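> call design_seq(struct)
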Protein backbone atom coordinates (compact mmCIF):
# COMPACT_ATOMS: atom_id res chain seq x y z
CA UNK A 1 0.00 0.00 0.00
CA UNK A 2 1.42 3.36 -1.06
CA UNK A 3 1.10 6.33 1.29
CA UNK A 4 1.14 10.04 0.49
CA UNK A 5 2.64 12.39 3.10
CA UNK A 6 2.45 16.18 2.73
CA UNK A 7 5.01 18.13 4.82
CA UNK A 8 5.09 21.88 5.45
CA UNK A 9 8.11 23.58 7.03
CA UNK A 10 8.36 27.33 7.57
CA UNK A 11 12.07 27.92 8.18
CA UNK A 12 15.50 26.29 7.97
CA UNK A 13 15.32 24.38 11.26
CA UNK A 14 11.98 22.88 10.22
CA UNK A 15 13.41 22.07 6.80
CA UNK A 16 16.17 20.01 8.49
CA UNK A 17 13.65 18.19 10.68
CA UNK A 18 11.42 17.57 7.69
CA UNK A 19 14.28 16.14 5.64
CA UNK A 20 15.29 13.73 8.42
CA UNK A 21 11.67 12.64 8.81
CA UNK A 22 11.33 12.07 5.05
CA UNK A 23 14.42 9.83 5.07
CA UNK A 24 13.10 7.88 8.08
CA UNK A 25 9.65 7.50 6.51
CA UNK A 26 11.18 6.23 3.28
CA UNK A 27 13.23 3.62 5.18
CA UNK A 28 10.24 2.48 7.19
CA UNK A 29 7.87 2.33 4.20
CA UNK A 30 10.47 0.56 2.04
CA UNK A 31 9.77 2.86 -0.89
CA UNK A 32 5.98 2.55 -0.86
CA UNK A 33 5.52 6.22 -0.13
CA UNK A 34 5.34 9.58 -1.91
CA UNK A 35 5.87 13.09 -0.64
CA UNK A 36 4.75 16.63 -1.42
CA UNK A 37 5.39 19.78 0.49
CA UNK A 38 6.88 23.14 1.31
CA UNK A 39 10.49 23.18 2.45
CA UNK A 40 14.02 24.25 1.75
CA UNK A 41 17.27 22.84 0.45
CA UNK A 42 17.34 19.84 2.82
CA UNK A 43 13.87 18.61 1.88
CA UNK A 44 14.61 19.23 -1.79
CA UNK A 45 17.76 17.11 -1.41
CA UNK A 46 15.49 14.31 -0.16
CA UNK A 47 13.54 14.54 -3.41
CA UNK A 48 10.64 16.72 -2.26
CA UNK A 49 10.37 19.90 -4.38
CA UNK A 50 8.85 22.87 -2.63
CA UNK A 51 5.71 24.64 -3.80
CA UNK A 52 7.65 27.89 -3.47
CA UNK A 53 11.10 29.00 -2.20
CA UNK A 54 11.24 28.82 1.59
CA UNK A 55 13.26 32.03 1.67
CA UNK A 56 10.11 33.99 0.80
CA UNK A 57 8.95 33.51 4.40
CA UNK A 58 12.12 34.90 6.01
CA UNK A 59 11.71 38.24 7.79
CA UNK A 60 14.75 40.31 8.72
CA UNK A 61 12.99 42.60 11.18
CA UNK A 62 9.69 44.09 12.35
CA UNK A 63 9.87 46.80 9.70
CA UNK A 64 9.52 44.20 6.95
CA UNK A 65 6.41 42.51 8.34
CA UNK A 66 3.66 44.85 6.97
CA UNK A 67 5.06 44.79 3.45
CA UNK A 68 5.50 41.01 3.41
CA UNK A 69 2.20 39.96 5.00
CA UNK A 70 0.15 39.90 1.77
CA UNK A 71 2.66 37.54 0.15
CA UNK A 72 2.82 35.31 3.23
CA UNK A 73 -0.98 35.02 3.43
CA UNK A 74 -1.07 34.26 -0.29
CA UNK A 75 1.36 31.38 0.30
CA UNK A 76 -0.77 30.13 3.20
CA UNK A 77 -3.83 30.00 0.94
CA UNK A 78 -1.92 28.37 -1.91
CA UNK A 79 -0.44 25.73 0.37
CA UNK A 80 -3.80 24.88 1.92
CA UNK A 81 -5.33 24.63 -1.57
CA UNK A 82 -2.57 22.25 -2.68
CA UNK A 83 -3.03 20.03 0.38
CA UNK A 84 -6.80 19.80 -0.02
CA UNK A 85 -6.37 19.00 -3.71
CA UNK A 86 -3.69 16.35 -3.06
CA UNK A 87 -5.74 14.56 -0.37
CA UNK A 88 -2.66 13.13 1.40
CA UNK A 89 -2.88 10.35 3.96
CA UNK A 90 -1.28 12.68 6.53
CA UNK A 91 -0.33 16.36 6.70
CA UNK A 92 2.78 16.98 8.81
CA UNK A 93 3.35 20.60 9.82
CA UNK A 94 6.88 21.24 11.08
CA UNK A 95 7.44 24.00 13.66
CA UNK A 96 6.87 27.69 12.66
CA UNK A 97 3.36 27.73 14.20
CA UNK A 98 2.52 31.26 13.06
CA UNK A 99 2.73 29.94 9.49
CA UNK A 100 1.99 26.22 9.66
CA UNK A 101 -0.94 26.39 12.09
CA UNK A 102 -2.79 28.82 9.83
CA UNK A 103 -2.46 26.27 7.04
CA UNK A 104 -3.61 23.46 9.33
CA UNK A 105 -6.75 25.36 10.35
CA UNK A 106 -7.67 25.98 6.71
CA UNK A 107 -7.12 22.33 5.80
CA UNK A 108 -9.16 21.07 8.76
CA UNK A 109 -12.07 23.35 7.83
CA UNK A 110 -12.13 22.21 4.19
CA UNK A 111 -10.93 18.59 4.45
CA UNK A 112 -11.49 17.33 8.02
CA UNK A 113 -10.71 13.75 6.95
CA UNK A 114 -6.98 14.58 6.50
CA UNK A 115 -5.08 13.74 9.74
CA UNK A 116 -2.72 16.50 10.88
CA UNK A 117 0.49 15.91 12.84
CA UNK A 118 2.42 18.80 14.40
CA UNK A 119 6.15 18.01 14.52
CA UNK A 120 7.61 20.24 17.28
CA UNK A 121 5.39 21.16 20.19
CA UNK A 122 4.70 24.92 20.42
CA UNK A 123 6.01 26.45 23.63
CA UNK A 124 2.60 26.36 25.33
CA UNK A 125 4.37 25.54 28.61
CA UNK A 126 6.12 28.92 28.46
CA UNK A 127 3.58 31.34 27.05
CA UNK A 128 0.08 31.48 25.52
CA UNK A 129 -1.03 28.24 27.23
CA UNK A 130 -4.51 28.60 25.71
CA UNK A 131 -3.04 27.52 22.37
CA UNK A 132 -2.85 23.94 23.65
CA UNK A 133 -6.62 23.49 23.98
CA UNK A 134 -7.24 25.43 20.74
CA UNK A 135 -4.98 23.01 18.85
CA UNK A 136 -7.36 20.13 19.52
CA UNK A 137 -9.61 21.53 16.79
CA UNK A 138 -7.03 21.12 14.03
CA UNK A 139 -4.13 18.91 15.25
CA UNK A 140 -4.52 15.17 15.82
CA UNK A 141 -1.09 14.39 17.28
CA UNK A 142 1.92 16.39 18.46
CA UNK A 143 5.48 15.07 18.20
CA UNK A 144 7.51 16.69 21.00
CA UNK A 145 11.25 17.32 21.03
CA UNK A 146 11.52 17.94 24.78
CA UNK A 147 10.76 15.30 27.43
CA UNK A 148 8.51 17.47 29.61
CA UNK A 149 6.22 18.60 26.78
CA UNK A 150 3.74 15.66 26.67
CA UNK A 151 2.87 16.21 30.33
CA UNK A 152 2.52 19.96 29.82
CA UNK A 153 0.34 19.49 26.75
CA UNK A 154 -1.89 17.05 28.64
CA UNK A 155 -2.28 19.33 31.66
CA UNK A 156 -3.24 22.22 29.36
CA UNK A 157 -5.89 20.18 27.55
CA UNK A 158 -4.05 19.90 24.25
CA UNK A 159 -4.08 17.13 21.64
CA UNK A 160 -2.32 13.75 22.19
CA UNK A 161 1.42 14.35 22.42
CA UNK A 162 4.35 11.92 22.23
CA UNK A 163 7.98 12.57 23.08
CA UNK A 164 10.10 11.49 20.11
CA UNK A 165 13.38 13.13 21.11
CA UNK A 166 15.52 16.10 20.18
CA UNK A 167 17.44 15.96 16.87
CA UNK A 168 20.65 16.92 18.67
CA UNK A 169 20.72 13.42 20.18
CA UNK A 170 21.40 12.10 16.67
CA UNK A 171 24.63 14.11 16.59
CA UNK A 172 26.34 12.92 19.76
CA UNK A 173 29.39 11.58 17.92
CA UNK A 174 29.88 14.94 16.20
CA UNK A 175 29.43 17.02 19.35
CA UNK A 176 31.15 14.93 22.03
CA UNK A 177 34.93 15.40 22.44
CA UNK A 178 37.30 12.54 21.57
CA UNK A 179 40.52 11.95 23.54
CA UNK A 180 42.53 14.50 21.56
CA UNK A 181 39.68 17.01 21.88
CA UNK A 182 39.63 16.54 25.64
CA UNK A 183 43.33 17.34 25.84
CA UNK A 184 42.88 20.41 23.65
CA UNK A 185 40.00 21.54 25.85
CA UNK A 186 42.43 21.74 28.78
CA UNK A 187 45.28 23.33 26.78
CA UNK A 188 46.30 26.97 27.18
CA UNK A 189 45.24 29.47 26.12
CA UNK A 190 41.68 28.23 26.61
CA UNK A 191 39.19 28.46 23.78
CA UNK A 192 36.10 30.55 24.48
CA UNK A 193 33.11 30.19 22.16
CA UNK A 194 30.92 33.26 21.65
CA UNK A 195 27.50 32.81 20.02
CA UNK A 196 25.65 36.14 19.71
CA UNK A 197 22.62 34.80 17.82
CA UNK A 198 21.16 33.15 14.74
CA UNK A 199 19.22 36.19 13.52
CA UNK A 200 20.41 39.59 12.35
CA UNK A 201 18.60 41.48 15.12
CA UNK A 202 20.02 39.21 17.82
CA UNK A 203 23.58 39.69 16.57
CA UNK A 204 23.20 43.46 16.51
CA UNK A 205 21.83 43.50 20.07
CA UNK A 206 24.15 40.95 21.64
CA UNK A 207 27.50 41.45 19.88
CA UNK A 208 28.50 44.75 21.55
CA UNK A 209 27.94 43.54 25.11
CA UNK A 210 29.47 40.13 24.34
CA UNK A 211 32.57 41.78 22.89
CA UNK A 212 32.96 43.97 25.96
CA UNK A 213 32.48 40.95 28.24
CA UNK A 214 35.20 38.99 26.41
CA UNK A 215 37.63 41.88 26.87
CA UNK A 216 36.93 41.91 30.61
CA UNK A 217 37.42 38.13 30.80
CA UNK A 218 40.87 38.54 29.24
CA UNK A 219 41.71 41.32 31.72
CA UNK A 220 40.76 39.10 34.67
CA UNK A 221 41.93 35.68 33.47
CA UNK A 222 44.73 36.32 30.98
CA UNK A 223 45.22 35.07 27.45
CA UNK A 224 42.22 33.42 25.77
CA UNK A 225 41.38 32.40 22.22
CA UNK A 226 37.94 33.51 21.03
CA UNK A 227 35.94 31.93 18.21
CA UNK A 228 32.55 33.13 16.93
CA UNK A 229 30.77 30.38 14.93
CA UNK A 230 28.04 31.55 12.56
CA UNK A 231 26.42 30.64 9.23
CA UNK A 232 27.16 32.09 5.77
CA UNK A 233 23.90 34.07 5.56
CA UNK A 234 24.91 36.03 8.70
CA UNK A 235 28.56 36.55 7.79
CA UNK A 236 28.04 40.13 6.59
CA UNK A 237 26.42 40.98 9.93
CA UNK A 238 28.71 39.07 12.28
CA UNK A 239 32.09 40.02 10.79
CA UNK A 240 31.72 43.82 11.15
CA UNK A 241 30.16 43.40 14.59
CA UNK A 242 33.12 41.34 15.80
CA UNK A 243 35.71 43.52 14.05
CA UNK A 244 35.03 46.31 16.54
CA UNK A 245 35.80 44.14 19.59
CA UNK A 246 38.78 45.11 21.70
CA UNK A 247 39.99 41.49 21.83
CA UNK A 248 40.37 39.92 18.36
CA UNK A 249 38.04 37.00 17.61
CA UNK A 250 37.98 34.52 14.75
CA UNK A 251 34.69 34.13 12.86
CA UNK A 252 34.11 30.65 11.42
CA UNK A 253 31.45 29.66 8.88
CA UNK A 254 32.32 26.05 8.12
CA UNK A 255 30.07 23.48 9.84
CA UNK A 256 32.94 21.06 10.52
CA UNK A 257 35.02 23.83 12.06
CA UNK A 258 32.10 24.71 14.30
CA UNK A 259 31.81 21.11 15.51
CA UNK A 260 35.54 21.01 16.21
CA UNK A 261 35.23 24.23 18.21
CA UNK A 262 32.37 22.76 20.26
CA UNK A 263 34.46 19.67 21.04
CA UNK A 264 37.51 21.66 22.16
CA UNK A 265 36.08 24.80 23.80
CA UNK A 266 36.60 25.21 27.51
CA UNK A 267 33.65 27.58 28.00
CA UNK A 268 31.09 29.58 26.07
CA UNK A 269 29.12 32.82 26.12
CA UNK A 270 25.87 32.40 24.24
CA UNK A 271 22.49 33.95 23.69
CA UNK A 272 19.57 31.85 24.92
CA UNK A 273 18.15 29.25 22.53
CA UNK A 274 18.96 25.84 21.10
CA UNK A 275 22.67 26.66 21.30
CA UNK A 276 22.52 26.19 25.09
CA UNK A 277 21.39 22.58 24.67
CA UNK A 278 23.95 22.01 21.91
CA UNK A 279 26.73 23.28 24.19
CA UNK A 280 25.45 21.23 27.13
CA UNK A 281 25.49 18.03 25.06
CA UNK A 282 29.08 18.90 24.10
CA UNK A 283 29.93 19.32 27.79
CA UNK A 284 30.86 23.01 27.46
CA UNK A 285 30.11 25.11 30.58
CA UNK A 286 28.49 28.38 29.61
CA UNK A 287 26.94 31.69 30.52
CA UNK A 288 23.73 32.59 28.68
CA UNK A 289 22.18 35.99 28.09
CA UNK A 290 19.50 37.77 26.10
CA UNK A 291 18.18 41.24 25.44
CA UNK A 292 15.02 42.37 23.66
CA UNK A 293 13.26 45.70 23.13
CA UNK A 294 11.33 47.30 25.99
CA UNK A 295 8.01 46.47 24.31
CA UNK A 296 9.00 42.80 23.93
CA UNK A 297 10.18 42.71 27.54
CA UNK A 298 6.86 44.06 28.82
CA UNK A 299 4.96 41.50 26.76
CA UNK A 300 7.20 38.70 28.04
CA UNK A 301 6.64 39.69 31.66
CA UNK A 302 2.90 39.35 31.11
CA UNK A 303 2.92 36.18 29.03
CA UNK A 304 5.98 34.05 29.85
CA UNK A 305 5.65 31.65 32.76
CA UNK A 306 8.84 29.61 33.16
CA UNK A 307 11.56 29.50 35.80
CA UNK A 308 14.28 29.93 33.16
CA UNK A 309 14.45 30.90 29.49
CA UNK A 310 17.52 28.71 28.98
CA UNK A 311 16.65 25.52 27.11
CA UNK A 312 19.42 23.51 28.80
CA UNK A 313 18.04 24.49 32.23
CA UNK A 314 14.48 23.58 31.25
CA UNK A 315 15.51 20.15 29.99
CA UNK A 316 17.60 19.44 33.09
CA UNK A 317 14.94 20.78 35.45
CA UNK A 318 17.63 22.79 37.24
CA UNK A 319 18.92 26.33 36.72
CA UNK A 320 22.53 25.24 36.39
CA UNK A 321 23.43 27.64 33.56
CA UNK A 322 23.59 31.25 34.78
CA UNK A 323 21.39 33.56 32.74
CA UNK A 324 21.56 37.32 32.44
CA UNK A 325 18.52 38.96 30.88
CA UNK A 326 17.78 42.56 29.91
CA UNK A 327 19.34 44.99 32.41
CA UNK A 328 21.28 42.15 34.04
CA UNK A 329 23.00 41.53 30.70
CA UNK A 330 26.08 43.68 31.27
CA UNK A 331 29.70 43.09 30.34
CA UNK A 332 30.84 43.07 33.98
CA UNK A 333 28.24 40.52 35.09
CA UNK A 334 28.84 38.25 32.12
CA UNK A 335 32.61 38.36 32.63
CA UNK A 336 32.34 37.68 36.37
CA UNK A 337 30.27 34.56 35.66
CA UNK A 338 32.52 33.40 32.82
CA UNK A 339 35.92 33.60 34.50
CA UNK A 340 35.29 30.75 36.99
CA UNK A 341 34.27 28.47 34.10
CA UNK A 342 37.77 28.63 32.62
CA UNK A 343 39.38 26.86 35.61
CA UNK A 344 38.67 23.77 37.71
CA UNK A 345 36.16 25.42 40.03
CA UNK A 346 32.90 24.37 41.74
CA UNK A 347 30.98 26.49 39.21
CA UNK A 348 32.53 24.62 36.31
CA UNK A 349 32.14 21.17 37.89
CA UNK A 350 28.48 21.82 38.74
CA UNK A 351 27.61 22.41 35.09
CA UNK A 352 29.65 19.46 33.82
CA UNK A 353 28.02 17.12 36.35
CA UNK A 354 24.56 18.32 35.35
CA UNK A 355 25.28 17.96 31.62
CA UNK A 356 26.31 14.34 32.24
CA UNK A 357 22.64 13.57 33.02
CA UNK A 358 21.40 14.69 29.61
CA UNK A 359 21.69 11.30 27.92
CA UNK A 360 19.27 9.82 30.43
CA UNK A 361 16.91 12.80 30.38
CA UNK A 362 16.80 12.94 26.56
CA UNK A 363 16.76 9.14 26.17
CA UNK A 364 19.81 9.38 23.93
CA UNK A 365 20.98 6.11 22.42
CA UNK A 366 17.48 4.73 21.92
CA UNK A 367 15.60 4.95 18.61
CA UNK A 368 16.44 8.15 16.75
CA UNK A 369 13.92 11.01 16.99
CA UNK A 370 13.20 10.88 13.26
CA UNK A 371 12.56 7.12 13.41
CA UNK A 372 10.22 7.53 16.37
CA UNK A 373 8.39 10.34 14.59
CA UNK A 374 8.16 8.28 11.39
CA UNK A 375 6.60 5.34 13.25
CA UNK A 376 3.74 7.52 14.50
CA UNK A 377 3.20 9.22 11.14
CA UNK A 378 3.02 5.83 9.37
CA UNK A 379 0.50 4.51 11.91
CA UNK A 380 -1.69 7.55 11.39
CA UNK A 381 -1.40 7.24 7.61
CA UNK A 382 -2.39 3.56 7.77
CA UNK A 383 -5.47 4.14 9.87
CA UNK A 384 -7.05 7.57 9.65
CA UNK A 385 -9.91 6.42 11.84
CA UNK A 386 -7.84 5.26 14.76
CA UNK A 387 -8.84 6.93 18.01
CA UNK A 388 -6.50 9.10 20.07
CA UNK A 389 -6.19 6.51 22.90
CA UNK A 390 -5.24 3.84 20.37
CA UNK A 391 -2.65 6.13 18.82
CA UNK A 392 -1.15 6.88 22.20
CA UNK A 393 -0.87 3.15 22.87
CA UNK A 394 1.10 2.76 19.63
CA UNK A 395 3.34 5.75 20.20
CA UNK A 396 6.77 5.58 21.86
CA UNK A 397 6.67 6.01 25.67
CA UNK A 398 6.12 9.59 26.77
CA UNK A 399 8.00 11.22 29.59
Amino acid sequence: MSRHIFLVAGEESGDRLGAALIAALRRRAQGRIQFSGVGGAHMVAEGVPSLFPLGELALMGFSEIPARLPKIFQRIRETADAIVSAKPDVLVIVDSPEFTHRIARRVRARAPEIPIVDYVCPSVWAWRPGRARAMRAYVDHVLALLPFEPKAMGELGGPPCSYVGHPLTERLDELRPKELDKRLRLADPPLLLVLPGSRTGEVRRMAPVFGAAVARVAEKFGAIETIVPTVPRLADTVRPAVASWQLPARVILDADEKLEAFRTARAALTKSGTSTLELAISGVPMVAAYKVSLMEELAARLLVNVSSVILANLVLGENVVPEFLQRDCTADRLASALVPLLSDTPERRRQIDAFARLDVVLEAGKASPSDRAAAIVIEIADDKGRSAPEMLALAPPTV
